[in-house]
Amino acid sequence: MKVRNPKSRFDLRIPSHYKVLDVGGGHNPHPRANVVVDKYTNTNYHRSGDIKVLKKQEFINADGENLPFSDNEFDYVICCQVLEHVENPHQFLAELFRVGKKGYIETPSLIGEYLFPRESHKWILHEINNTLHLLDKETLGFTFGYNMTELIQDYLPTHSIGFKILERTHPNLITVRIEWENDFEYEVESQDPEVRKFFKGSWQSDWQNDFFPKRTMFQELKEATIAFKDITKSVIRSRIVKK
């Protein structure tokens, strides 16, 4: 079941004694992971840089759709920015749920895909009523005009505190983040018009409050303060990891 939508990939409930797997850690493995798996070792087509392995992490070259681990071998499985690339999401997710008791998955949202589309992304995703929906971009006839990938994914997250705050106060704006236990609800290639209407055409004003509910000024200030504290912790953590 879905547990919640974390505000960042570091806002996770992972006890210190948990054995943790990162599937598709690529150039940015989660520092909490004990074991990191990646399918592609000789190409960066599906990632933004060379594979990186942190101290005390074990790296295994393996396919996420056929993981070389026993059932429930890991207490927690992390998977960031990978699901949108896979050929068979049913098999991929079944493997995450098989080897992990709990976990966290992160993908671009529907809005995020339009802001920073990538050729290597096969699926466009949107969470609706606690169900993650995946639709094939080619089948949808997905098109985009102005590509802002470098600005949205690289420059602003690195140089703008305001952008970092936005990412945390509206965590599902450009990214879908789901923490789960055992599994979570998802659907591939839904034919329901009430689902597909979100994926094509124009964003409707009457959808806004459903996905991004209005908050009072006090609530906004509270969320922004929490976000700023989280950013500060993240900066300190990243400097410790680099050492």
TrEMBL record:
InterPro entries given in the database record: Methyltransf_11, SAM-dependent_MTases_sf
Pfam families named in the record: Methyltransf_11
UniProt keyword annotations, A-Z: Methyltransferase, Transferase
Lineage: superkingdom: Bacteria
Any GO molecular function: methyltransferase activity
GO annotation terms (biological process): methylation
Listed name of the protein: Class I SAM-dependent methyltransferase
Species: Niabella ginsengisoli
